[in-house]
Specification:
This protein is mostly helical. The chain has helices at 5-16, 20-27, 31-38, 46-56, 60-63, 73-92, 95-104, 108-121. The longest helix has 20 residues, at 73-92.
Length: 133
């Protein structure tokens, strides 16, 4: 298969085992549009391309035929973040997940206040982890 939009779309659909009807549901595009793309009649414009890439979990650049990894960077970042969270849980305990979730739900003002309070807690020896000798 050459690296055309049409071929990459068909390849991604086959690899992900997604039929045109399912892809239409996931993207909100019509079955006719999907058919036109897979038959090479048209190439997707930016918005449709993005919807297709997200639904198929592939890189937009790859889908366009560029010589890049097929996988979306977002998927790679999520995997990296999952590994980082697991490492943090091993080191700091499961509370770190609660802390991150609560912190992420705050607005800018709330995050500043939370950091200020953590800085204050770090000044009180009763709350500071003692170094082992």
């Amino acid at each position: 298969m050459s690296d055309t939009f049409k071929n990459r779309l068909v390849q991604a659909m086959l690899q992900r085992n997604i039929k045109a009807a399912e892809l239409a549901k996931r993207t909100g595009l019509s079955k006719a549009q999907i058919s036109q793309y897979t038959n090479g009649v048209y190439e997707a414009k930016q918005t449709a391309l993005y919807k297709l890439a997200v639904a198929l979990d592939v890189s937009e650049a790859w889908l366009m035929g560029h010589d890049v990894d097929m996988e979306r960077l977002i998927s790679q970042k999520c995997a990296e973040q999952t590994n980082m969270i697991e490492l943090m849980q091993l080191h700091f305990g499961s509370e770190v997940t609660d802390l991150v979730q609560m912190f992420s739900s705050l607005n800018r003002k709330g995050r500043k206040k939370a950091l200020d309070q953590l800085q204050d807690l770090n000044k009180i020896t009763e709350y500071i982890e003692k170094e082992s000798d």
